[in-house]
Target: TFIIS central domain-containing protein
Amino acid sequence: MASSSLSSVVSGLVRAQMGGAVTGTITDDDLDRHVAELILKEAKQKAERYSKEGIRAFLPQQDSNAPKTNKRFLSSIIRSTDDHNKAILREQALSAMEIRIQKEEEERKERRHGQRRRPAQRG
Model:
């Protein structure tokens, strides 16, 4: 059922892409043919670009107006995040150590109190 609903969604999108006026009259075979034509068209365009540009034809197009990555900013964010995470880990380790020390002290107290309550046995 999931694949049929996915198929109907894809069919609806392809029909919408083809134009609203023809959506009701197009059969599934026509949709398949249309999608195959689009794939072939794109493959031919890539092949032509590959013959001119080489491997760059298959790389995603980069917008020349896009801003450059601010690597210093990103490095700073990563460093700050790492430092923060290390601080949290130190706090957790310290807290765990304090809890362990408290438990050990309580066990010692219980052992001491247990020894005092028992009378000494003579043999």
About this structure: The chain has a mean pLDDT of 82. The two ends are 83 Å apart (CA to CA). The chain is about 75% helix and 0% strand. The first helix runs from residue 2 to 18.
